[in-house]
Amino acid sequence: MFRSLFHRPPSRARLRRLRWLRLLLLGFITFFVIDLWRISQSGSPSVIKPAPPLDIRHQDRVFIASIHWNNESILRSHWNDALLDLVQKLGPEHVYVSVLESGSWDGSKDALRALDTELEKLGVERKIVLEDITHIDEIQRMPSSDEPGWIWTVRGKKELRRIPYLSRLRNRVMDELTALASRTEAKRTFDKVLWLNDVVFTAHDALNILGTREGDYAAACSLDFSKPPAYYDTFALRDSSGAKAITHTWPYFLSSMSRHAMMAGSPVPVQSCWNGIVAFDATPFYERPPLVFRGISDGLAKYHLEGSECCLIHADNPLTPVKGVWLNPDVRVGYNEKAYANVHPRHSAIWPSAGEKLLGIWQNRVARLINFPRRMIEDMVVSWRVRSWKANGLEREEHGVHCLINEMQVLVGNGWAHL
């Protein structure tokens, strides 16, 4: 009797609601399981693949380029040895090494002198330039009134912009490429240009970059990490639509074309990348005028905009729309030993794991939804400033608008600063 008084049977409406809730829960669980299975069966961006065969590697002549500033630690611990190993695998007669060190206050110069000695033993043609001009020397000099690369800032003074400065250094390294082709005796030309950042890498990594799509690319890049699982070079990476990565973790991209290629473990079509190691088809660097590194104009930079020289180079490259720019997800480098080890786990040939992939995909899905207003506002700000710049001058054009961000970057004594 008490049971009948205090426990009324559920109504039909309540039973229907419970049935729908169970169906929704079952549907979500089914979708989740299918999603997990699909992810586990998809291609991995990190299954260790063999380096290209020797005969393929040796058909290309490679111009190896790098700039360094206060990199003694990584030069001595990893970089020098990896470069020497790479040179031997490519063949000393097939490479040229061009390095510029600029005003380091650590032992970078001594580390590069040691590298120079070892390259000499291998018979490698090279140019390693060590300079004493520091950042302080650069920013304290008085520029002429019409010297490009300087800008009036909110600090009430004319300051040296970071990107034109870096572009100048990179172009000095690349000057050797054309000098070798134009010298009167023993002329040399190259098929690929390989830029190496101050990263932990192996010869296998560099060879895989060179062999991306069997060498058919305008440019091919690695992925770089400082604090995994987040990738590092957000300034240069743009997906196939020209958008910045939507998340810092796998599968990174807003564009479905780039995202699906990453999920499949295939070379990823992008508009721009650098990310530690990048290989270029050398052809545009021999054209007249040659492809060069640059920053955006000082006039456009006054609108509080900046773009990486490592992104703009792809926007200017005539081969980009023909052969494409590709990110190779099988090649991951680190700015320290711990970062490199974390993206090359010893217990597994696959990175990221299935669980990390599942989490990353859901983070990407959520970010595509909730970050839409922020992305729209960022794009509107950049577009409005570019339009304003164009309206205030004749025949003004910037081909690398997708590279631009709402920042101003200037050189300072110990590096660079956002203003």
UniProtKB/TrEMBL annotation:
A Pfam cross-reference name: CAP59_mtransfer
Keyword annotations of the record: Membrane, Transmembrane, Transmembrane helix
Superkingdom of source: Eukaryota
Transmembrane regions listed in the UniProt entry: 20-39
Record's protein name: Polysaccharide export protein
Annotated source species: Coccidioides immitis RMSCC 3703
